[in-house]
Structures are given as C-alpha cells and as structure tokens.
Amino acid sequence: MASKRPKDAGARYSQGARHAPQPVPRVRRSSALYAALDLGTNSCRMLIAVPRGAGFRVVDSFSKSVQLGLGLESSGRLSRRSMLRTIQALRICQQKLKRHKVRRMRLVATEACRRALNAEDFIDRVHRETGLRLDIIQTEEEARLAVISCAPLVCPKTENLLIVDIGGGSTELVWIDLSGVAKHDRACAIMRLHAGFKPALSNIPQARVVDWISVPLGVATLREQFNDVEDDAGRFALMSWYFEENLAGFSPYHAKERTEHFQIVGTSGTVTTVAASHLGLKRYDRTKVDGLSMSTKQIDAVIHSYLAMGPSGRRADPRIGSDRHALIMSGAAILQALMRCWPTDSLSVADRGLREGLLYSQMSADGVLDTDFSKALP
C-alpha cells in the first residue's frame, strides 16, 4: 500500500493575507472531564483527564495490547479473534467512562480500521456491544494530533521541526518550519495546528507545514512483511532498508546540511522503550523518559544491544516488556532509518501521542487551556 501525502505536499503553505489583529481569547476555567481513546493496529489506549493550566491532569487511563491488525496484511480483514480481544478491552473503557461520567470525548480508530475490508462491520459491532462510537480518522488528522501532542517539547530555538509518530500500522512524519515565529510563541504555534495543516488567514505568525507523509508501515505491519526471514540481524537490516525506501518522496528526505536549529521529536512505544533501555530502567518511569534527548550514538548502542540479545534475550529483558519484545526490532529498524536520513545527531523523546493530541485538541477548541505551554511540561 502506497504512502499517503497531500496533493500539494512538498510546497510550503503560504502565510495568506494579513488581517487586523485578533483579540486574545479568554481562557474559560473548567472542571469537566475529557476522554481520548486511540484504537490502533496493536494497542487500545485511553486517557481521562481534566484541564489544568496549559495542560491537563490524568484522572484515569487504560492500555492493552489487542493486536487488532494481526493477519490483516495477508487477509485484508480483521480476524474474529482480534475483534473479540478488542471488544473486551473496549468494554473496560466503556465502564471507566461511565464511572467517571465523562461527557466530552473522542474515540478514534486508525490504520487497521482504515485498511480492513470489514472495518465498518466491526465499528457497528463495537457500538452494539459496548455503546461506544468509534470514529475512523484519516491520516492527516492522525498526523496533526501527533504534532500538537508534542507542542510542549518544542525547543524555543527550533526553526525546523520533524515530528515522527511510529504506530502499529503506520508511521506519520510532519516537517514544520517555525523560522517565522517568535521563539517564545513556537510551542503555541504548534498547538494552533489543531484546526488544520493549512494556516488560517491571520496576522499572527504561523507554523508552516513544509511536508507530511503517512507511511503504511508500523511496528506490526513492517514485522509481518518480513516474517519469513529467519535470520534476526538480516531481518532487521531488510526492514530498515525497506522503510527508508518508502520515504523517497518525502521532500525533507533530501536535506543535506546539519543545523543546530533542527529538532526531531519521536513519539511511540518504540522510542520510549529505547529511551528506557538507555537509562537502564527496570521499571518504566514516564517522568524520566518524556522530554529526554538521546544522541544517535546512544540510540545505535541500544539497538545493537537488542540485536546481541537475540529474540530470547529480548523476551526476557524487563526494560522491553512482554507486550513489546516481538515488535521492538521492527520499531528499531524504523527509528534507525529515520536517524540516518536527517541532519541531526539527537532525538527528543515524547511519551505522548494520539491520546494527548485528542485531549489538547478538544480542550483547545473549548477554550479551557492557557496559552503558556511551558506550564504543560511534565
């Protein structure tokens, strides 16, 4: 399946006509609970949170590996067992939403449901059996949500930003030009993208999306492509090469010069697992991982240690975890390919993604967030 890009990708979106200054919206205080559910190819995850300043406080959460997309590459359909596992997980989510009396929520499904021939039947079944209405979002919205979730991690000196979201079934990459935005407003400019990648007509300096791409290869789908390769190291090399081949049409892929004003932010279970391994954490600690900067050499060292362990060693390593050991090398192959392609020696680690983007988007649209995003850092 081909990578997806907008028709006008590769060209910078124009700033548009300049208009009279817009009044700064008044922040409305709210104690209402918001929920965000992300049903991906591999996992079902949910957050319930209340707005706090420029961020939010998590009240409850849920995360489970459901492997919804298992076998999808070969059959084109969601399997009966995968759907059953997923519905069982969604019942738990529904109970949490009911217990907390959540009224504002977005419940979304991504790549597996975008591709499956029986996705609509599955969505209808979920509604019948759990009462939950899932929305299958398109690739641009998924990319946009990943971007705004990372707004608090954008460095003030960053002029060119690459956000990478490695999912189970797809990988989204968004290249953003912030050079026309004042340093103190760059994180806020990222947040304003919740309304769309093409900036609204305004005199306020805008973050400009240079290019974005959705590659239909994530940790689960890439692993399935090379299931028949028995050699562990050989399979890893093939996966990394194949993923890089799928990036050839992405405009920033051809960037050559290194720059201190360029930042890559990576958000995914792969990135946070590699970070936890680098830190030697036997028990995962989000406060130590989210916002961490890792050098290319540090990332390579962790990946080489994974290869040296072999499948049995990775299965037993507490830093990787029982849910991720089978998929960590496909994720590592994607990560290594990305770090090979662009002019930087470091990666900013984000333990945040689609769920956080969904929460920020809802709260921002409701006007219940402050505009000082330095307050949103963990």
Description:
By secondary structure, the protein is of the alpha/beta class. The protein folds into two domains: 34-137, Nucleotidyltransferase, domain 5; 141-354, Exopolyphosphatase. Domain 2 (Nucleotidyltransferase, domain 5, 2-Layer Sandwich). Helices cover 38% and strands 19% of the residues. The protein has 13 helices and eleven strands. It has a six-stranded mixed beta sheet, sandwiched between helices. It has a five-stranded mixed beta sheet with strand order 3-2-1-4-5, sandwiched between helices. It is globular and about 55 Å long.
**Based on the structure given, which CATH architecture of the largest domain is correct?**
2-Layer Sandwich
* Structural class by sheet pairing and helices: alpha/beta
Global Rg: 20 Å
Question: How does the major sheet shape up?
Answer: 6 strands, mixed
Count up the domains. Answer: 2
Give the mean pLDDT.
86
User: Helix and strand string, N-terminal first?
Assistant: EEEHHEHHEHEEHEHHEHHEHHEH
- CATH overall fold name of the largest domain: Nucleotidyltransferase, domain 5
Count of separate DSSP helical elements:
13
CA-CA gap between termini: 38 Å
Indicate the CATH class of the largest domain: Alpha Beta
**Portion of residues in helices?**
25-40%
Query: How much of the residues is beta strand, in percent?
Result: 15-25%
Shape: globular
